[in-house]
Write a structure and sequence with these properties.
homodimer; alpha/beta; VC0802-like; 2 domains; 13 helices; 18 strands; amino-acid biosynthesis (chains A, B); AKii-LysC-BS (chains A, B); ATP-binding (chains A, B); diaminopimelate biosynthesis (chains A, B); ACT_dom (chains A, B)
């Protein structure tokens, strides 16, 4: 007799047939005695189609009206899921973000949840109903409709789970869970039964996009257990929890990679205070996320400044960088959009020296040159030539014995020791 | 410097291009110094497509969820119209039924408006914005989304015009206005510059579907002037007002016809009190609208009972009629779905005896047999064989001198007299 939040993404509700499939999964939980809140996204590519429709009306859709438009996608889904449930004899009711009382700030297209009033939720749950909530959307204090940004339905699900203190927040997706590496690149990659919030957050921001990072932050803040699992079968997926590595003490949990990377180098930047601030605050103002930053003192009074951005932000970034560089007295701005990033993530890293060295060794053994390095307490990222990326991921994955086969033999060795 | 409500139907906003066209019309009014509230329907066939989607999920979509689903259609339209207006430099904001404060009862799929809170409307108008409101929808006191039934956007527009005491409620449509007869049947039919609420109501319920009857009732109740006009050009259409015939004293304003008619006759019904009540209350309970009712005493103690329903309700009606008839001791139930109705409407009829006789004479001269007659203070309807319907409309239209040519020659005669 638990209290569950289940979230289904756009692929899971893309057609009437899939909606009925999703409804059957929900019905199973309901008949199993659980109280269930369901969060759904817009059907299939609805959101993209609505954005395209807006662009046919105006080149620059105003953000408030874009949110008014986009929020209809989830509203269609919740109505249909509630219909499918009722058709199967499960009492169900759909609620928009506004109706469920998800109050946000007024930053249209990427609003943040401020509070959730749970009165209506409890009322419907107490009446024995499955509550089907529109993901991705909320309302401001003055009742204007907002959306939470791409992937915002994950955030809705976790926020609801936190607000009603659910036992678990199940995120149904088209992958089986979180793997030690992308299985398409590393065939021996293993499904992780459990992972910590911190590791998940690094994985998500490093390119293994399974959950919206904000939803993981929120889960960490409120201690919500997220269960990432497949909507196609019943096997358990990956649980994201506060402390994951306690029993198994694995140093490295997974290897991720990211191809959406571009490198920019400004040569001979004057080496004086405020230069980096000047440049990066201009980029931040445009919402451009700067990832790795490496500054190398080359000769007296000047340095080379290397940093990376998403490849999709490259053109916009270059325009600004060239202007700022020129104002700083240099015109030598170089860029490379054929780089990639390979990273190791693991909460155990912090207390295990030599982890980074082992990664560099694995890359060196493959003859792969490292162009830049960035580290945090639980991750090490290396910037390399994109053409070596898959090989790098496999080498690093092997080096830390993360594969299904290696893990087995390690376990055997451990028991023989 | 007036206060206007403008309503655009689904055809007018069917594509991004038409939405921009509509926005230009609104912008003209705005730049002309008017304060404007716009009401829009769902784009093109959106509502039908959403209903079809629901039917793919369940054979019997629950009404609350159907309203949740259908209301998205208008929400898409208002966002796009507001975007198009802003693109043209007109400050505009879209509001859902819920946001604008259109409160209804809880009868899903055919809710009735209870009250409109005008605070947000006035706030936006005072800020110099065009307010684009979703037609067809409202919310209950508990914030559940309702819809007002087919054509409900007309009702939204009139209700808003009443609530904010607008100078005029313009209903843009794909016809030029209200004609003395259907121009496709009677080529000489004339556009009526003005018509009374009562006449419009009879026209609407008699098959000349230009406005949702409920919207006309509401306009009559609050004295809202409705201006029915074309969305394709700028010419004036038909104004629906309290007293239309004062100056011109036309006895008959228009001729309408209706093909969606089926006749049912129950032979030898026992002639005792309560029989009609029994039958018609069962039909009413199913929402089946009974139109003409004629009871003919044939022999002692039994009568024949003739009545008409919409042809689309025939099967459902027959099932009930056969059961009730059998309980009353007769099994002789006949029906005919090849009938049609021709009607004359005119507020001047009441003070002009002989109007009905003139209509019957016109039909007799064409050799058309009248199967049943029903009258009100401002209309006379005759049930005839459907195959004679077009000819009947033309004959009656001629008999009352309603055509463009006749009206002209009458005017000439009058000036010569």
């Amino acid at each position: 007799m638990g209290l569950l939040v289940q979230k289904f993404g756009g692929t899971s509700v893309a057609t009437p047939e899939r909606i009925r499939h999703v409804a059957r999964r929900i019905a199973d939980r309901y008949h199993g005695g659980h109280r269930v809140i369901v969060v759904v996204s817009a059907m299939g590519h609805t959101t993209d189609q609505l954005i395209e429709l807006a662009r046919q009306v105006t080149a620059q859709p105003p953000r408030r009206e874009l949110d008014m438009l986009l929020s209809t996608g989830e509203q269609v889904s919740i109505a249909l899921v509630a219909m499918a449930l009722q058709d199967m004899g499960v009492p169900a009711i759909s609620l928009t973000g506004s109706q469920v009382g998800i109050q946000t700030d007024g930053v249209f297209t990427r609003a943040r949840i401020r509070r959730i009033s749970t009165a209506r939720l409890h009322q419907e749950l107490d009446a024995g109903r499955v509550v089907v909530v529109a993901g991705f959307q909320g309302v401001t204090e003055s009742m204007d409709i907002t959306t939470l940004g791409r992937g915002g339905s994950d955030t809705t699900a976790v926020a609801l789970a936190a607000a009603i203190q659910a036992d678990e927040c199940e995120i149904y997706t088209d992958v089986d869970g979180v793997y030690t590496a992308d299985p398409r690149v590393v065939p021996s990659a293993r499904l992780l039964p459990v992972i910590s919030y911190g590791e998940m957050l690094e994985m998500a921001s490093l390119g293994a996009v399974v959950l919206q990072p904000r939803s993981v932050e929120l889960a960490a803040q409120y201690g919500v257990v997220i269960h990432v699992r497949s909507s196609f079968h019943d096997r358990e997926g990956t649980r994201v929890v506060a402390e994951a590595n306690l029993e198994k003490a694995m140093v490295v949990t997974g290897v991720t990679h990211d191809r959406n990377v571009a490198k920019i180098v400004i040569i001979d930047v004057p080496d004086r205070p405020g230069v980096a601030h000047r440049l990066f605050s201009e980029l931040a103002a445009l919402g451009i996320n700067v990832d790795m930053i490496v500054q190398t003192a080359k000769q007296q009074h000047t340095t080379d400044l290397l940093f990376t951005v998403a490849r999709t932000d490259l053109d916009q970034t270059l325009a600004i960088v060239r202007r700022v560089a020129s104002e700083l007295g240099t015109d030598d701005v170089r860029h490379d959009a054929t780089v990639g990033k390979v990273s190791i993530v693991g909460a155990g890293m912090v207390s295990n020296p030599g982890v980074a060295a082992r990664m560099f060794g694995a890359l060196a053994a493959e003859g792969i040159n490292i162009q830049a390095i960035s580290t945090s307490e639980i991750k090490v990222s290396c910037l390399i030539d994109e053409q070596h990326l898959d090989r790098a991921v496999r080498a690093v994955h092997d080096a830390f014995g993360l594969g299904a086969h290696e893990a087995e033999s390690e376990a055997v060795e451990a028991s023989q020791a």
